[in-house]
Amino acid sequence: MKKTLLLTILTLSIALLSQFAFAQKGEVRRFDNASIENTTNIVKLFPNPTIDYLNIKIENSELKHATFTVHNIIGNVVEVKVEEVEENRYRVKVDNLSPGYYFLAIRDEKGHFKETYKFLKRQ
């Protein structure tokens, strides 16, 4: 019993000490000057919830020939019209969809980018 209690206390002590060891002042500031702004393909859907059109804006994009697929909540593909408004800006016509949640899947032609986003269609 004493060995189990001692082992538990030792394990908890090591766990607590390891937390503080990695959160030292120098460690927290290690990435201050690092360039972590190389995030590509920042996707914004608006307005969400939507009524007539869902606008898609892809910032910092490297996508070539992106394809868009809309799925209903149970995963069935729903036919929608997608038009390119300008470079990296698209508009999806959703006025004929029933109210509810849908998923917009965005993929590029080479398969490097595959993301799915949820949106709500209102009446």
From TrEMBL:
Record carries keyword NADP: no
Stored InterPro entries: Secre_tail
Domain of life, per lineage: Bacteria
Secretion system C-terminal sorting domain sequence ranges: 45-112
Endpoints of the signal sequence: 1-23
Any Pfam family: Por_Secre_tail
Alphabetically ordered keywords of this record: Signal
NCBIfam families: Por_Secre_tail
Name this protein carries in UniProt: T9SS type A sorting domain-containing protein
Organism: Fulvivirga sediminis
